[in-house]
Amino acid sequence: MPSRLGQIIEQKEGQLITEWMTQLSQTLGPQKSQISDAELRTNLHDFVLALKQGFALGGGQRLDSAAWSSLRDVLTNLSRQRATQGFTPAETAMFVFSFKPVLFNELRNANKNDPAALADEIVATTELLDKFGLFTMEVYQKTREAVIVRQQQEMLELSTPVVELWTGILALPLIGTLDSARTQIVMQNLLEAVVAKGADLAIIDITGVPTVDTLVAQHLLKTVSAARLMGAECIISGIRPQIAQTIIHLGVDLGSVITKANLADAFRLALRKRSLAVAAI
Amino acid sequence: MDKIPILKLGPFLLVTIQVDMHDRLAMILQEELTDRIVTDHARGVLIDISSLDIVDSFIGRMLSNIAGMARVLDAETVVVGMQPSVAITLVELGLSLPGIRTALNVDRGMDLLKASLVEEEAVRGQDD
Question: In chain B, whose CA is at the least distance from the CA of A256?
């Protein structure tokens, strides 16, 4: 049905792009500065080219048909680019939607004497462009989700290093809140390091853990128990005054686990346990 | 039928579990080990589980029981070489084996047993 639309795009390509550019610069807010005019123009050009190609291949209202494949690619690229550049979802969708008034104008000119046909054309065009817009949003969303998942993984990897302080003495500086998933990774990393380094002492430093509630304490005790089962003793260090207060107020029983106020004290104790001492020279 | 060998090493008994532990085998081991502690006058038991990939709650409890029985018979038990995955499983099962001493490998376990024997001797010396 949007055959007229195809013709219009074919004939007035250059003019459409120019009008669309003005339309876009009006709608785009402060984010406009993040993207240069030349870049924007290339985007528009790609889009119109793909649209033309789609119509030439007989693309109908179904966006998932083969005819629209190049247009889908253009929109996917554009959407990803916008998501990583920090555009808002509305601004990303506006890119496609701002093409509507431009096209409507042209359709009105072309169908001056036939109001019924004009209405039909406009409905068909709106439907098609809405689909393009929604597709853009979907890709935008997916890209953002992928970014979030990647960041989560990076955080997990970043926040659980196991450091060897001395032969047989490991330190595990914990940063951030401990949940079940992280405890699992922390535990695994620690136990694997215990085996790899042949360590029999591990200092778990919780200076970077913002709060210790019953659940976090339980996770800590689990880690200590697991290390003990493998023959490594654990010292918990870096307990801040507030945390000591919460632990007691909550009635958490740390059992026989050795605790120290700071890492230096814990390290001193660990050295003593191995019959070592640091001396001035 | 699999059998777990119990080796005498000076005043200690060395048990290396290298086959999959099923419940019957665990019971047999428990019985034989207590017998051997008495007949060999053993002062320590070293159980090496480094080749065990799976330890269920039953085996976990059996290890606890063996340690308890050995203590009654005046022998110390050290479990050595537990795999990280096994340690995590046991902790998740709520079995932290409180009565058992542990060490990273047979070498360290032996040191632990020897040290506790020396300590005991020293205490005995003071008593005389």
Answer: B98
